[in-house]
């Protein structure tokens, strides 16, 4: 569960969404050939319980497929071994306190927001700054009623298990864990990510709800602003978390169309828009994507 929360926090952490006109359309696209259909859906990894029931299109698409593909198989990601590895990667490599590592001013902001969010300050003291930012971000989401168990990928993973539909990942558990445990390197490992989180708390009164409304209304333009902001302000994070992974996934996605099974692929919504997004990459392969609206 920690890995699911982490990935959700990374998307929220870098979000600066300006909501456009709401369109009651789900973030689902279909690619069809002579003998199969591939559906690509954009997910939020944390959602409020009020997100359900989903738009009817989600249920119709799920009923039409025999296989489910996620970023990674959630049941394997949440193994005790993987969770231990992830938490170990978040620990600071020094005995210096968090205040000593990030400075008095930033520490005072962390303390203020931790108190507001009901997060014990002592629980943050031994963590790397990037993980402190994620902990604050996730606490904000949870305070607003968002939970990983309500995320779109978790929801359909449970459904597929119950219905005995095969589940597989675009990444192996090892690949996915290496992505997460490498987040302390370079730019993402510096205090800049924590500073971005603290800045967002000052700018947005209700960031989780804003992101949720963009997703629920199917506002791809708002998601595109998220991606553009991430690319401009955190280029290394953008490449590692979105652009590079999208390129790696392309052969797999195109290969799914070579089969005869109808397949539902669910990825984080930030993977969809933009020049390096999956929608554009798939179109560049000569494929026709049709948005599913009902």
UniProtKB/TrEMBL annotation:
InterPro entries: TraB/PrgY/GumN_fam, YbaP-like
CDD domains: Tiki
Pfam families from the UniProt entry: TraB_PrgY_gumN (PF01963)
Protein's name according to its UniProt entry: TraB/GumN family protein
Lineage, broadest ranks: Bacteria, Pseudomonadati, Pseudomonadota, Gammaproteobacteria, Chromatiales
């Amino acid at each position: 569960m920690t890995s699911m929360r982490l990935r959700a926090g990374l998307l929220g952490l870098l979000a600066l969404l300006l909501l456009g006109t709401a369109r009651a359309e789900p973030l689902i696209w279909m690619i069809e050939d002579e003998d199969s259909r591939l559906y690509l859906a954009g997910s939020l990894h944390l959602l409020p319980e009020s997100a359900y029931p989903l738009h009817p299109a989600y249920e119709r698409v799920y009923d039409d497929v025999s296989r489910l593909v996620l970023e990674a198989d959630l049941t394997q990601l949440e193994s005790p071994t993987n969770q231990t590895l992830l938490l170990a990667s978040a620990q600071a490599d020094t005995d210096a306190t968090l205040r000593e590592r990030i400075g008095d001013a930033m520490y005072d902001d962390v303390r203020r927001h931790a108190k507001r969010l009901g997060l014990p300050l002592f629980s943050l003291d031994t963590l790397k700054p990037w993980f402190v930012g994620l902990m604050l971000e996730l606490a904000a989401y949870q305070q607003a009623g968002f939970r990983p168990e309500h995320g779109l990928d978790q929801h359909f993973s449970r459904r597929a298990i119950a219905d005995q539909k095969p589940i597989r990942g675009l990444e192996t558990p090892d690949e996915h864990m290496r992505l997460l445990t490498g987040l302390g390197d370079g730019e993402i490992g510096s205090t800049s990510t924590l500073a971005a989180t603290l800045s967002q708390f000052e700018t947005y009164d209700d960031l989780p709800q804003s992101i949720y409304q963009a997703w629920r209304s199917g506002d791809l333009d708002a998601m595109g602003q998220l991606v553009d902001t991430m690319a401009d302000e955190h280029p290394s994070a953008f490449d590692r978390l979105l652009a590079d992974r999208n390129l790696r996934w392309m052969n797999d996605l195109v290969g799914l169309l070579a089969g005869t099974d109808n397949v539902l692929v669910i990825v984080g919504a930030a993977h969809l828009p933009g020049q390096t997004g999956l929608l554009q990459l798939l179109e560049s392969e000569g494929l026709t994507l049709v948005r599913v609206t009902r």
